[in-house]
């Protein structure tokens, strides 16, 4: 039985928290004042022109506060519209200035002040109202008797009936005087919809609202619309973004009743649901039920991506706003935690999908961005790694500037910031004098500079070279000997020079599939390729473990300009789907030598971050798996079906140095004859014991 984790009803019946609204008599706008004041509403609307602020010539009447109240303006007993009543509170601002030369004017000045004190105040108060698609401005004339004129004191209020607005609309109200003596007052209010008002019998658009339940059953999220079979309604799913307009995601016009299933991986906190009857001027009711759902917040962070925007910009892309802060840090080549840096990024929450600037002079591959939420690290990206290359063995020097031009230098290391010329037993302390000389001679790159300090990146390669000079000399001698030996095998050297590394990754579904992979690997060895497959490295795989073995082979293959071949089978596709559904918990490996399951933790980031093209190739076998069954993420690289597409597959593996098409076709024909028996052995008659696992049925299409 489904376990309801969140239940919302948009029903015709009464909500436990509803408002009963006053009914306004008459269809014309009206104004009334508090006792002691007189007011008049001008006929018709006026232009909304606030104008500039001017100085008050003396005491003036100004609005000080706005209040709203919802009422019903009815044409008939059951034909009403929602209306916004506005209350404007007024006060006296300023006072009469006394003459500068009181002695000169004497009694004349006193008489003038007395005359002003006996005068009443009059003001023209403008009330502006906006609620898409409506915009109105009305003018109220208010007069205050002299007895109530006390500078700085409230005098009463004016009530305006009323501005009509749609249910659920956002309204904005401004108030100011003409001429304007101060900044205009403003008020923004989200009006309730049919759920929060006792209006079902008064507003006709509320009569036919669908009943929507949101519930969960296992991993699925169900939207159940319990309406009559004849009723037609619209349903829209959208991302309600804090910055910018809502972004539509899914929309359908349906006929009730309906049950719609959402995948739990599609949930994010800002995913909202809007439903409305397909009738003229119908009310659209929106709910956002996933704001507090933990799974939605996890999915949001999985979807978030950091991007570098040349020359000195960056952006965090995400479907929703994120309560997060960003900091810069320095990632050393030898690993360890990323060290926070002095130039801070703004501490306020990051504005997603908006270009931001780095407070840096230069970029560096070792400078990374950390995104934290509630003091928990969520994302870390070294954004310059793609454009400036891999991490460098540079030492970061931190210069601190104090009063009276006092300066101090330290080197940022894993143990902290080590002062130069200190007696510590760290690499920076041992090379302190040399680093100072490099800084003074301009060999270090300045990354940041302001009144408080500076950051410098100093290369350390030459010191590594000096330390290992004797080792390099011995290596050169050994290389000379090896060169002489290799000259004896010139032809073999040429062939090896043309060879390219190919790392085969597959899921060990069954023994028949392993034999098929072995046959493919053996056939590829007949080409100028260096083939690496775990079938031939069982001892190393057992000693190092699948993950460590794959890391080492993948790094070596890619550094040599090779290619990683993903051999997809039904078992491999199932593993990929498990990872894509919830990357936070890796699926268990199928066996002690299953490098494919272990490798997904490193293969997936390359595909998600767009680094796979040119480095990865996909393949599957005819009749065993269709290329369309390969997850869409992995189809961003070429996926070949073997042996039918062997010529194209071999050309891609061998790269630019591949032989001409005729030669490739000949080799492909030879390999096809080798592969066919192994491929046929994977298919046995139905009911035969030991039959390998078939392809899983494709997942039901998401609605």
TrEMBL record:
Q: From which source organism is this entry?
A: Vicugna pacos (Alpaca)
Main localization category: membrane
- Protein name as catalogued: Interleukin-17 receptor C isoform X2
A Pfam family assignment: SEFIR
Residue ranges annotated as transmembrane are 468-488
Q: Which domain of life is it from?
A: Eukaryota
Gene3D superfamilies to which the protein is assigned, alphabetical: 3.40.50.11530
Q: Where is this gene product found?
A: Cell membrane; Membrane
How is this protein positioned relative to the membrane? Single-pass membrane protein; Single-pass type I membrane protein
Give the matching InterPro entries.
IL-17_rcpt-like, IL-17_rcpt_C/E_N, SEFIR_dom
Q: Which UniProt keywords apply?
A: Cell membrane, Glycoprotein, Inflammatory response, Membrane, Receptor, Signal, Transmembrane, Transmembrane helix
Tell me which positions the record assigns to the signal sequence.
1-20
What stretch or stretches form a coiled coil here?
none
Stretches for region Disordered = 681-703
């Amino acid at each position: 039985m489904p376990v309801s984790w969140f239940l919302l009803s948009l029903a015709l019946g009464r909500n436990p928290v509803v408002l009963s609204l006053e009914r306004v008599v008459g269809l014309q706008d009206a104004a009334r004042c508090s006792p002691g004041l007189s007011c008049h509403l001008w006929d018709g609307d006026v232009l909304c022109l606030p104008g500039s602020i001017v100085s008050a010539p003396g005491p003036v009447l100004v609005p000080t506060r706005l209040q709203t109240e919802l009422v019903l303006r009815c044409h008939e007993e059951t034909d009403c519209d929602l209306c916004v009543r506005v209350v404007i509170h007024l006060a006296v601002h300023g006072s009469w200035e006394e003459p500068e030369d009181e002695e000169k004017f004497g009694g004349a000045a006193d008489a003038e002040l007395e005359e002003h004190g006996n005068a009443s105040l009059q003001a023209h108060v403008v009330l502006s109202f906006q609620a898409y698609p409506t915009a109105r401005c009305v003018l109220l004339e208010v007069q205050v008797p002299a007895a109530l004129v006390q500078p700085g004191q409230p005098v009463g209020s004016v009530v305006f009936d009323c501005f009509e607005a749609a249910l659920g609309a956002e309204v904005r109200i401004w108030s100011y005087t003409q001429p304007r003596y101060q900044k205009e007052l403003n008020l923004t209010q989200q009006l309730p919809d049919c759920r929060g008002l006792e209006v079902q019998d008064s507003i006709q658009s509320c009569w036919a609202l669908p009943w929507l339940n949101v519930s969960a059953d296992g991993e699925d999220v169900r939207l159940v619309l319990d309406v009559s079979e004849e009723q037609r309604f619209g349903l829209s799913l959208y991302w309600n973004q804090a910055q910018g307009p809502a972004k539509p995601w899914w929309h359908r016009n349906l006929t009730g009743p309906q049950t719609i299933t959402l995948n739990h991986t599609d949930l994010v906190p800002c995913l909202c649901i809007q439903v409305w009857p397909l009738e003229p001027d119908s009310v659209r009711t929106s709910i956002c039920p996933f704001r507090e759902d933990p799974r939605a917040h996890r999915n949001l962070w999985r979807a978030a991506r950091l991007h570098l925007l040349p020359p000195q910009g960056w952006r965090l892309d995400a479907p929703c706003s994120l309560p997060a802060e960003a900091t810069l840090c320095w990632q050393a080549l030898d690993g360890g935690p990323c060290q926070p840096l002095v130039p801070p990024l703004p501490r306020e929450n990051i504005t997603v999908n908006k270009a931001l600037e780095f407070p840096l002079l230069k970029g560096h591959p070792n400078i990374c961005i950390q995104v934290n939420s509630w003091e928990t690290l969520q994302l870390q990206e070294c954004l310059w790694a793609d454009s400036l290359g891999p991490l460098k063995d540079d030492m970061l020097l931190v210069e601190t500037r104090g009063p009276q031009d006092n300066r101090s230098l330290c080197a940022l290391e894993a143990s902290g910031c080590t002062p130069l010329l200190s007696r510590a037993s760290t690499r920076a302390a041992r090379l302190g004098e040399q680093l100072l000389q490099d800084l003074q001679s301009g060999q270090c790159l300045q990354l940041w500079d302001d009144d408080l300090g500076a950051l410098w990146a100093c290369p350390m390669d030459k010191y590594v070279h000096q330390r290992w000079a004797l080792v390099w000399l011995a290596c050169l001698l050994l290389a000379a000997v090896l060169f002489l030996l290799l000259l004896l095998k010139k032809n073999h050297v040429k062939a090896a020079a043309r060879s390219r590394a190919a790392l085969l990754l597959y899921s060990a579904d069954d023994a028949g599939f392993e034999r098929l992979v072995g046959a493919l690997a053996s056939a590829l060895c007949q080409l100028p390729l260096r083939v690496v497959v775990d079938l031939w490295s069982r001892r190393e795989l057992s000693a190092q473990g699948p993950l460590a073995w794959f890391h080492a082979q993948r790094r070596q293959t890619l550094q040599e300009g090779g290619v990683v071949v993903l051999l997809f089978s039904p078992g491999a596709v199932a593993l990929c789907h498990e990872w894509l559904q919830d990357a936070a918990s890796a699926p268990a490996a199928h066996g002690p030598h299953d490098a494919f399951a272990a490798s997904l933790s490193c293969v997936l980031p390359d595909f998600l971050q767009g680094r796979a093209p040119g480095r990865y190739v996909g393949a599957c076998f005819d009749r065993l798996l269709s290329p369309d069954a390969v997850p869409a993420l992995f189809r961003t690289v070429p996926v070949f079906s073997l042996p039918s597409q062997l010529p194209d597959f071999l050309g891609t593996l061998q790269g630019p140095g591949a032989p001409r098409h005729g030669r490739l076709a000949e080799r492909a024909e030879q390999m096809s004859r080798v592969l066919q028996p192994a491929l046929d052995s994977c298919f046995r008659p139905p009911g035969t014991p030991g039959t390998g696992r078939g392809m899983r049925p494709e997942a039901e299409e998401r609605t």
